[in-house]
Amino acid sequence: GPKVLQIPSHQIIDMGQMVTLNCDPVSNHLYFYWYKQILGQQMEFLVNFYNGKVMEKSKLFKDQFSVERPDGSYFTLKIQPTALEDSAVYFCASSLEGTSQNTLYFGAGTRLSVL
Amino acid sequence: AQSVTQPDARVTVSEGASLQLRCKYSYSGTPYLFWYVQYPRQGLQLLLKYYSGDPVVQGVNGFEAEFIKSNSSFHLRKASVHWSDSAVYFCAVSGSNYQLIWGSGTKLIIKP
Question: Which of A53, A100, A102, A103 to mutate to test the interface with B (most CBs of B within 10 A)?
Fold first, then answer.
């Protein structure tokens, strides 16, 4: 079936550094999402993105976070600067449509470790 | 508050036995309900979803789930599990916005 690729699978950085998480969504999809899962906790919605703009974001999407998809390439999540509490697995997803019952396709996640 | 509860963090079942993974939700409006599965080192994949009609929905690989509104439940079932069903299963709910609210997941272990 359709695949969402996330690169890298694990990233380790020092607190205060910048990090960019990359997501290669399904090729004809138009809606893009980031979810965050802290170890042992539920996955939580961060943000969704359509037509070059953030549609919705949660309170977890701090000012240090930004998303973009320049020139239809990777959909990225940038954190600058990083904090210890940003350590988590970040899941990217995409969907063809943005309705609530639409199927999301997920990547395998990027584990971010902030030291 | 809107939430999804999967009370069992881990379920162990013998191969060939039947399975039920529990999911209860709290949602004020009309919920859309989903079950996703995550196999090792892969992304989450949709098993099935419900938003109207027959409360028993069929999914892939012989899975089904039943929406019971009076109980706010959406339990996942399978008549006979296979070793390849070993994975983590997530229940989720969404409403009129784009956000999915997730349960904490249930790890399914299949004994030979």
Answer: A100
Q: Catalogue the E-assigned strands of B6-102.
A: 10-14, 19-21, 24-26, 32-38, 44-50, 56-58, 64-68, 73-78, 87-94, 100-102
CATH number at residue A11: 2.60.40.10
Number of residue pairs across A and B with CB atoms under 8 Å? 63
How many domains does the structure of chain A reveal? 1
Q: What is the pLDDT of residues A5-27, one digit of tens each?
A: 998 999 999 999 999 999 999 98
The DSSP annotation for B16-41 comes to TS-EEE--EEE-SSPPEEEEEEE-TT
Which residue of A41, A106, A110, A111 is the best one to mutate when testing the B interface, meaning the one whose CB has the most B CBs within 10 A? A106
| Domain locations along chain B | 3-111
* CA A79 vs CA A15, A89, B93: distances in Å: 11, 14, 28
Q: Per CATH, the architecture of B3-111 is what? A: Sandwich (2.60)
The shortest CB-CB distance from B95 to any of A43, A55, A100 is to: A100
Rounded CA separation A6/A107 (Å)? 6
Contact A91/B98, CB-based, under 8 Å?
no
C-beta of residue B98 within 8 angstroms of C-beta of residue A55: yes
pLDDT (tens digit per residue) in B23-53:
999 988 778 999 999 998 888 899 999 988 8
